[in-house]
Structures are given as C-alpha cells and as structure tokens.
C-alpha cells in the first residue's frame, strides 16, 4: 500500500494524489492547474500515471482546482466511478460545464492567434460533452457514511465547512493483516462561517494530508467584517451611488446574500435594489437552497421561516443579458453582485465600465485577487485601468473586505490539526511553497506533530508508517 503525490504539491492548484492498495488504485481529487498560461499548459500533458489502472476517483469538493480535470480523465478513456458528496455532484454540473466553456473559448482565441502565425490549431482541453460525461460518472454519497468502494478500500466523507458539499475524506486501506487510515483534509473552511457547519474534528489517523492555503495568515474578525460591509453600504447610500461586488458564483455569492438577509435592518437594505447578476451564481444559489440539511443551526432556523427563493424581498435574479444591461441605467441605489470574482471576465466588467469613473460609486472586493487581474489592479488603487481596450479613470471608492474567506486561517488550521488525538504524521499540501514550509514547522512547534512538505512524485510506503 502506497501513496504518491502528484498535484497541489508545487503550489495551490491541481490537487491530485494516488493511493495504491493491492491491485487497486484510486485518485484523490483530479483538479485543474490554474495560473499563468505557461503553468496551465501542464493540464494538456499526459497524466503521469497509467489511466487504465485507475479504478476509481474520490473527489473532496466541487472547486475546479480539485475537480476540473475529471472531464479530461473521461475524455482520455477513464470509465470508473467518481465518488463525491451529493451536493458536490450537483455543483459539479454547474462548475464543470462552465470550465468546459472557458476552455472552448480559450482554444478559439488561441487558434485565431495561431492561424495568423501559420500554426496548426489546438484542441480545446475538453468540451461541454466531456464535462457532462464526467458528471455522469459521479456517484453521490452523504456525509458520515462509511462505504467500501473497492476490495480493501473504504471511504467516509466528513463536512469540511468550506463550500456546500465540501469534504474531508477518511480512507481505510487493508492489505493482508495491515490496516491504515489516511485523512485527506480537502479544503478546510472557517469556523463560525455563515450557512455552513464548522469543519469536522477527526480524532484518529495514521497519516494526514492537509491543506495550508492560509497557513501564514490570520483573517479579520467576523463581527468587524460585518461592520465594515455595513459602513460601505451606508456611505454609498449617503452619496447616492451604486455598490459593485465582484464575487465567485459558488460560495461567496450565497454567503453575501445570507449576510444581507441576516443584517437586513442594520444595513438599511430596504432602500436598495439588490441584483444577483450571474446565471451561474443563480444556479448555485438554487443548489444551496436545495440542501437545507447541510446548513448550520442558525441557517437552518432561518431557512425554516422562509419557503421561497430568493429570501431577500428586493433581490432580483437576472438571467438574461438584456436584464443585466438594464442595470446599467441605474445611477444610484443598486447593489450588484456579479462575476467573475477577480474581474477578469463576466458581467462585472460591464458594470465597472458604467460605474468606475463615478466618485459616488463603491466597489467592494470580497475575495482573493490574483496578480495580473483587473481586480488586483483595483485593490492596488491604480488610478486608471484598461477595460476592453479603453482606459477608465478609477474615481469610484474601492474597499477590500478581508474577512469572508472560505479557507481556515492559521489558527483554524492548527485547531483542526490539534483535533487528532494520536499525533499522526502530517504531509502539508495545497499552499504556496514558503507557506507550506512555515506551516509544517508550526505544526511541529505548536502541536509536536511530525510534519513535512512532499514533492510531486514522492512515494510513501504506507505499511511502514
Ligand atoms: Zn476549495
Ligand atoms: Zn482548493
């Protein structure tokens, strides 16, 4: 029995690990590598394992950096089951189709450039048909149910509190008289986050694979964050402007709507029109709505009092492009939640064009902005930005609200790791290289755990741990 590290060891994205037990092999996650074009080219390379020998895939959650290469697996011939939590399966239907359409558009764009240089066209990484096929291979499971998926291999999903359906995976391997238990953390959520339960404490494991995205950072206090959002709303109201919120469709948008619902009076929202201007976020919101049994206590209580979606009186869900364009006519009193989360595409771009030169308008940044994106330029307070080839003065007021992360911070990661009673060995994955090193050191100092940072291609003999 062995474990081989493959993706999310170099950086954050492309989560993928292989477990071999007897004659069976499973993949844990099969995520897309995301980043600069050069890095993303790695997605096109052949898998460094024999696809025919993979018997099953076990997914932790729907985010593309964990699930985004499953359509590629299927395109290249994988025919086995892909296990996921039930809600993850539903969210994957939305996310994988979107990922496919981005890949198809990207191939088209690249082929235009290639044609000019006389180069052969490239194929789209995968198509919507591949995404649908991958989704058809997905087998949903509930939380907390142990299931044997192959001879000698059983799994159980536990709530990770990160996005709806996100899991930590407990994996039991048995070969002859040897049994080992491995825990894969997936992405770990924050404690006391809106809607979702806290990350599940797991007390026993022989080996833990643990994410470390924010292993070097502390998030701002939640109450302070709520006050910050309230202040932006009241200022924008006094100045008669609009508020734009670039937000990721899955997780962040639902969290914002929920916070608006629970702080409705404090934030004076009855004076505003609120728009969820993203077909994907609308679809994801319906999925969130359909899984009330996965909510935490507070959200369950709220959900039991309201039977209809949307739960905000003045929320408009705008599907059609024409409806979205009509929002551009509104000069004040609109809160517009639209994607993409980093302003590198999507409907938010059009709203920025119409509002960014106006001093009375406000842009609320609620998520991580990668280098090179328009969102990052706004966060950096650039005075002028280029949108669709034209320059716009940034007169609108930019606010960075830092407390809404879907990831546990350093203290919360330590809290989760501290839940293991039997002091298992820990491999730190899914983080920037220096963060993984720092966090691995911290696990040793604070919790006396033996922790290390694996490289892609490292193999661990599980019978020896
Ligand atoms: Zn995630
Ligand atoms: Zn992730």
Which percent range fits the helix content?
25-40%
CATH topology term of the largest domain: Metallo-beta-lactamase, Chain A
**End-to-end Cα distance:** 11 Å
Count of the separate structural domains: 2
Tally the beta strands.
22
Give the number of helices.
14
CATH class category name of the largest domain: Alpha Beta
Physical arrangement of strands within the biggest beta sheet: 6-5-4-3-2-1-22
How would you describe what is shown here?
With 465 residues, the chain is α/β, with parallel strands linked by helices. The chain folds into two domains: 2-217 and 406-464, Ribonuclease Z/Hydroxyacylglutathione hydrolase-like (Metallo-beta-lactamase, Chain A, 4-Layer Sandwich); 222-400, Rossmann fold (3-Layer(aba) Sandwich). Helices cover 32% and strands 21% of the residues. The protein has helices spanning 37-40, 64-67, 70-75, 86-116, 128-136, 222-238, 252-262, 279-290, 297-305, 321-327, 348-355, 374-379, 410-417, 433-447, and strands spanning 2-5, 17-21, 24-28, 56-58, 82-85, 138-141, 147-150, 153-159, 167-175, 178-184, 207-211, 243-246, 273-276, 315-317, 334-338, 362-365, 384-387, 390-393, 397-400, 425-429, 451-452, 459-461. It has a seven-stranded mixed β-sheet with strand order 6-5-4-3-2-1-22. A seven-stranded mixed β-sheet has the order 7-8-9-10-11-20-21, with helices on one face. The chain has a six-stranded parallel β-sheet with strand order 14-13-15-12-16-19, sandwiched between helices. Helix 4 (86-116) packs antiparallel against helix 8. It is globular and about 70 Å long. The structure holds zinc ion (2 copies). The site of one zinc ion has 6 residues, from helix 2.
